[in-house]
Write a structure and sequence with these properties.
Layout lengths: L1 H31 L12 E8 L2 E8 L6 E6 L10 H12 L2 E7 L12 H14 L5 E6 L3 H8 L4 E7 L5 H8 L14 H7 L8 H18 L12 H8 L7 H7 L19 H7 L10 H5 L5 E6 L8 H8 L7 E6 L15 H20 L1
Parallel strand pairs: 3-4, 3-5, 5-6, 6-7, 7-8
Antiparallel strand pairs: 1-2, 2-4
């Protein structure tokens, strides 16, 4: 009788789980597919904000119905966190699909900084989310949020991990972003100040000058991010020059270099007058940035894992997805998906020859979302 009872429990569990996953995947397909209206946002979603000490936490959940699952989201490095329009739309889509979603923005992100202490603050937010979850919780990350997600995914209460656009080597990712690495591909010129700001104290400047430059680069990013046309044909140059007018003259060359602007002709990149070059500053920053190395955390991950990366990612190169997969030998299952549907900050429509392959990849991505969300 005990065996029959257990078999009955198994039969009742799987249909419910399969139904929940199917519902999540089907709803997300409508919101995230290449056919979706990127200007529309899901309705029937309750959005609430909390401040847990220094960390901002935003929770999205389906209104007037019980969630089918729970996902903790580690966002990419952005000063707006869940308030960034594309991130807000994505989180609303998850909630419309029946998934309660907790997005935690590390304090350093407000100033576009990756800070070691934010690992612990994110962990506290995760504990807060777990305490409000009926079961195990999925973990998802975007871009540099993968470092935080890998730390959390080793927790036995994590039911699955999905990393979108993550990295295996922070040095390789930063070098790619500023055109120093061997990787080929388009770079996002608007992202360049983040790397300069992250290693600013290693340029050999006065601490006051470092703070001044970081504040100026942050203001520049606030003015340019999310404005796709500024990525092309040097259209970001007037914004950089406008911001440069607020700076003392001795900081102008380095500030403009950080914005991919040549002080002489207004385009391209010139050498600055800083005592230390950018390449050397990245190397000098290595000891203080050891915490960004994901290898130890990745090796502890044992849950089902999905790694998704845009083939045209212009911030973290797609080669990082294979390197990251190598760091996950103990994952229960590992799916790697390269997609042409999504870059780092924008979607794309597939060409006719690639349509079938892209749709197969899209189905795998939906399966990943549904699995980490609904168990």
């Amino acid at each position: 009788m005990a065996i029959l009872s257990r078999l009955g429990a198994v039969r009742s569990y799987f249909p419910a789980t399969l139904l929940a996953r199917t519902q999540v995947a089907a709803t997300l397909a409508g919101w995230l597919g290449p056919w979706s209206d990127e200007q529309a946002a899901a309705r029937g979603v309750l959005r609430q904000h909390w401040r847990l000490g220094e960390i901002d936490v935003t929770v999205y959940r389906p209104d007037r119905r019980q969630p089918l699952g729970h996902v903790f989201v580690c966002p990419g490095l952005h000063f707006a966190g869940a308030n960034e329009p594309k991130m807000d739309r994505f989180l609303r889509a998850l909630a419309a699909a029946g998934v309660q979603t907790t997005c935690a923005m590390p304090p350093g992100f407000r100033s576009l900084r990756l800070v070691a202490s934010d690992l612990e603050t994110t962990r506290r937010a995760f504990e807060w989310a777990v305490a409000r979850s009926a079961g195990r919780i999925g973990v998802m990350s975007i871009s540099f949020g993968s470092r935080f997600a890998l730390e959390l995914a080793s927790d036995p209460r994590c039911g699955g991990l999905l990393c979108f656009g993550g990295y295996a080597s922070w040095q390789a990712a930063m070098r790619f972003a500023v055109g120093l690495g061997p990787e080929v591909g388009e770079r996002d010129p608007l992202n360049r100040p983040v790397v300069f700001g992250q290693v600013a104290e290693h340029f050999g400047l006065d601490p006051d000058d470092v703070r001044t430059l970081r504040s100026a680069w942050l203001r520049y990013c606030i003015r340019t991010w999310g404005r796709e046309p500024l990525k092309r044909q040097g259209r970001h140059v007037p914004v950089a020059r406008s911001e440069a007018e607020t700076l003392p003259s001795h900081l102008l060359p380095l500030f403009l270099e950080g914005c991919a602007v040549d002080p002489a002709c207004g385009a391209g990149v010139s050498a600055s007058t800083a005592p230390t070059s950018l390449a050397a500053a990245i190397d000098l920053a290595a000891p203080a940035h050891q915490w960004l190395d994901p290898r130890a955390s990745a090796a502890r991950v044992t849950c089902p894992t999905w790694l998704v990366h845009g083939v045209d990612d212009d911030v973290i190169p797609v080669s990082q997805v294979d390197a990251l997969a190598q760091l996950l030998p103990n994952a229960q299952t590992l799916q790697v998906v390269r997609t042409g549907l999504y870059g780092h900050t924008a979607g794309a429509r597939p060409t006719l020859p690639s349509l079938a392959a892209e749709l197969r990849g899209f189905v795998k991505v939906l399966q990943g979302f549904a699995s980490i969300a609904a168990g």
